[in-house]
Structures are given as C-alpha cells and as structure tokens.
Write a structure and sequence with these properties.
- It is a single chain.
- The chain is mainly β.
- Helices cover 11% and strands 34% of the residues.
- The chain contains 2 helices and 8 strands.
- The strands form 2 sheets. The chain has a 4-stranded antiparallel beta sheet with strand order 1-8-3-6, with no helix packed on it. A 4-stranded antiparallel beta sheet has the order 2-7-4-5, with no helix packed on it.
- A hairpin with a 4-residue loop joins strand 4 and strand 5.
- The protein is globular, with a radius of gyration of 15 Å.
Length: 113
Amino acid sequence: MFTCLQVWASVFNCASVICNRQCPLHQDPSSTPKGFDIMASVGHYCNGIMILSNLGIWLQYNSGAMVSCSGHNVRHGVTYTSDHIVWAWFTCNSLQNFVGTPWSLYTTFIHVD
C-alpha cells in the first residue's frame, strides 16, 4: 500500500460522502490534528448553516460552498432544509500509521506582502 500512496494524487487519504443528513456538532478524533479537512456541499437547497462552535463562527453553507478547518480540533456541525450532499476529504491517523507514510507538519500561515 505504501507504494500506491507514493503516487496518490491527493494529500488526503480518506473521503466521505454524506447524503441528506443533518450533522450535529462534533469533532473528528480519527482525523489528524496537524492538518485541515475540506468539506464541499452540492445539491438543490438554501439556508444551509455550518457552525464552528468553539471558534464562535456561523457560516452560510449553501450549495457550492467549501469549508476547510481542522475537524480534529474544531467542533463543527451542519444544518440543511432540503436535498444535499457533502463531500469531506481528510487524513485519517490510523491509516497513516498503518501504511507508514511520513507525517505532515502542522498547517501554518505565512504572511506575504
């Protein structure tokens, strides 16, 4: 598997597809605390809300929106009023350990003038 992951086309080793489901506030303990997860929404709906509760942030999360945060560290949840699909990409600690791929550094921000 390590050989396959050397040519893997993504920095994420897991993906999840969530269909027509409310997502209560939660954290993802199996996700790596060092990186960000990406969540993208598609569907025919409006009035979607994503809550990042421990950051005090409420986001309009309508079709076509993408949010990136540390699912391990940030408590998050989503509410909808109609049909929707959420694609979530993340790095799973246990898979990373199993295949022995190198760990990434913590995500950082560098200010560029």
